[in-house]
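Hi,

I'm pasting everything inline rather than attaching a file, because the server keeps stripping attachments. The sequence lines come first, and each chain or strand is labelled.
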Amino acid sequence: MNEQTRSFTVKAAFIAKPETLYPGLSVEANIVIQSKEMALTIPRSYLLPDSTVHLSKGVIRKVKVGLADYQKVEILDGLNKDDVIYKPVQ
Amino acid sequence: MGENVLQAKGICKSFHDPVRIMVLKDVTFSISKGEFVSVIGKSGCGKSTLLYILSTMDTDYKGELFIDQENMLGRSEKQLARIRNEKIGFVFQFHYLLNEFTVLENVMLPGLKLARWPEAEVKLRALEKLRMLDIQALSGKMANQLSGGEKQRVAIARALINDPIIIMCDEPTGNLDKANGLTVFNIFKLLAQEQHQTLLVVTHDQEFAKNTHRIIEMDDGRIVRQ
Amino acid sequence: MKSHLIIRIAKSLLLARWRQTLVAAVGVTFSIAMFITLLGFMNGLNKLLDGLIINRIAHVRLFKEIKPNAHQPINSSDRFKHSYNFIRTVKSESSRQAIYNSGAVLRALKKDDRVSGVAPRITAQVFFNDGVVDITGVINGIDVEAESHLFHFNEYVTAGKPIDLKHVSSSIILGKGLAAKLLANIGDVVQVTTAQQERFSLKVVGYFQSGLQEVDKTQSFASLATTQKILARPSDYITDIQVKLNDLSLAPGVAREYAKLFDTETEDIQTANAQFETGSFIRSLISYSVGITLLIVAGFGIYNILNMMIYEKMDSIAILKATGFSGFDVNRIFIAIALSIGFFGGIVGLLFGFLLSSIIDQIPFNTAALPTIKTYPIDYNPVFYLIATTFSLVTTYLAGWAPARKASKIDPVVIIRGK
Ligand SMILES: Nc1ncnc2c1ncn2[C@@H]1O[C@H](COP(=O)(O)OP(=O)(O)O)[C@@H](O)[C@H]1O
Ligand SMILES: [Mg+2]
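And the predicted assembly:
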């Protein structure tokens, strides 16, 4: 790992070589570091800032969150797939 | 008797002011070509009212009016204007001239409107009429610079410009002094004698009336003698 | 009936009351002159501002934005296609800031009938070295001829010859503010350092003054080749393509089309500069409404004077009617009076408007922001003169309509008996 840029150099080779290669071509890749079956996710917008969600009739519940991006968030604990949650009003 | 120039059949006229007053009651008469007719009667008996109807300016009446043997009933305002322009010469008691124009232009205007002759000829005719009435010297003056007698003569010249079949006058000497009145009367007489011009003159001047061919006497909206 | 006679009578009536006529005509003259001046000035201003901003902005801009690819590779792998993938530390496609296959794109654009011109550009972030101090700046690699032709680049070069960028190798035109900071004169050599720590010497061949201070303090221009050399990029390296269209209003559609066709980001002028259109529109609206208000006021003046004239000329109207002029003739006489006030007042108004405009056009207007402007801007668009004439005739006609109608309805018997 390059300490300064916090990046790795990865070497890759074609499995099937393309017919023509243009100058200046670049490659893009994702490295899979973990995969999980049967994970529970909710839309990011349903999660309040203090890691709580709205259940019906103003009941608020604290949840434990895992991975998150701008669209979705993983719920590790506090909800199951049959719970109904409400989108908080802005 | 010559042909009929003007014919009135049972003309009635009433004003609503505020109650209905009959001003003309069944007025019937006719005038032949070349006649010099005077209409006399007491003030307020309906002479002017009759003249406005005969001259087609007033169309609100009952009865029938024939000018040049044509019925005036149901004609448009535009057609009547054309008839006034072509066939009738009108001289008012007050010398109505257009003050924005010269004497010559005043005389020419009805001729230009008729457009029977080109402008140059209308001008010649106008000058000739002015000469006949002995006022050619005034032709370049503005209308409002003339005396009453002069104005009335210009008005007569204007009435003559299109060779009308009849000239109607409403007390043409009423506003003039004796001398001027006489001049105007002599002009009418001359027109009647030498040019056989048909004339219908409303007057209260008995002297004037006596010297015409025929007198129509009115009283309270009726013809009592003709 | 012959209009000749109508006009003659109208003229005599007018001249008999020439004082009132003059007042009415002066009203029209004033409003027309103001209308012309106002519109000319406002539109001159509009054009100036358009020139300042819009003329220098491409109708459609093609560029590559540095941002993560929306289609990450994992989402197309068979194994993970149907799962939700949290991807961390996504890297931008940084290496491809250039427009892919730019030569082909430029050729395709030039062939498009809707395009009036294209100008490729490269932007390079650099440091200008001034002794021990480094000043951050931008070098815009441009095609001088295309930029001058399409975006009036040459008009903003206040010293030096723009074309020298092309003819003198390793040359640069500095923003006026930047040059002042660097104390660089024309003919001097300035040092620049790239982000890759490469140093270059560039010869100053001119100054550039855009009218926007911030721009002049940081921007500079060099030829495409020079910029490519500084960035150590091949000759097809282009980061921006500026497109000018024949019809500006097509820009949004064309932008969307190009985005798909060339697989780049695009931006159209309407979206980028919506507020300018609004500004121009409001200015035009104000000048039109003021002008028309003035005309309406003048119209009321004419209306009043005609009404007065008819009151005074009752006798004349009665005589005209008694001697054979119809109501329609009388109507036409008064319409002719109204229209001639409008016509002559309007003609003089156009003249005065033109004069006033030319006077404003001579007034010095010097501002650092607008190096090419020396006097107040005026637009002598003949369309304004046409509109003004039409309006003056229409307003005076409308002003004359009611009085003329009244005059035509006058009953001569009432007038004659009334004496
Ligand atoms: N517009 C009018 N409204 C009501 N009455 C009128 C009107 N004009 C005239 N009259 C009346 O009609 C009558 C006749 O008037 P006029 O014809 O002028 O008489 P003359 O000319 O014989 O003196 C008079 O009694 C007059 O008062
Ligand atoms: Mg009378």
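The longest helix of chain B spans residues 178-195.

If the labels don't parse on your end, tell me and I'll reformat.
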